[in-house]
Amino acid sequence: MTTAPATCCLCDALCGLLVQHENGTVTSVRGNPDDVFSRGYICPKGVALPDVQNDPDRVRQPLRRTERGFEPVSWDEALRDIADRIGVVQERGGRDAAAVYIGNPTAHSYAAVLFAVPLVAVLGTRNLYSSNSLDSAPRQLASYFMYGARTLLPIPDGCRSSRGGNGSCDCKRRHAKV
């Protein structure tokens, strides 16, 4: 059994992992206590990675839907079919009939980002979306309407909130005059 440090790329937290594997099979994932950011914490998604990796129903190659169900095809055949179909869609509806979404974990993969840049260029579409489109941009709009600027963020006052009043607040130490 081998243990290797890794980084989880399922969200922006990028938690440190310790991945145990044997003969190419992931056997467990736990938080890495030596990680300077996550300090051993990982969420349930990280813990479940071996279940996803080793799921017998996991799709491991391209599939094409046919009248008889899904049938395996080669990568070359799948990519050729996708290119042909996107071409038909763009012939009918123009270049902007296609859209691209880039989010997690794609945004944390150099290979995926390097593939996405030429794909977007070839498609020529203006319809490019990301996790920012769904997450940060709406928050910035709300901040603009609530606070007058999209870059302003509310900072909770833990010492005066119901959660901060439970003795866990260390404001006296942090704000003490030195």
Polypeptide structure, described:
The protein is α+β, with helices and mostly antiparallel strands and 178 residues long. Among the domains are: 2-53, 2-Layer Sandwich (Phosphorylase Kinase, domain 1), CATH 3.30.200.210; 63-132, no CATH class. The protein has helices at residues 44-47, 49-53, 75-93, 110-123, 131-134, 136-147, 171-174, and strands spanning 2-7, 16-22, 25-31, 63-66, 69-72, 100-102, 128-130. Strands 1-2-3 form a three-stranded antiparallel beta sheet. Strands 4-5 form a two-stranded antiparallel ribbon. Strands 6-7 form a two-stranded parallel sheet. Strand 6 (100-102), helix 4 and strand 7 (128-130) form a beta-alpha-beta unit. The radius of gyration is 23 Å and the shape is flat. It starts with a strand and ends with a helix. 6% of the residues are buried. The model has no long low-confidence stretch (mean pLDDT 86).
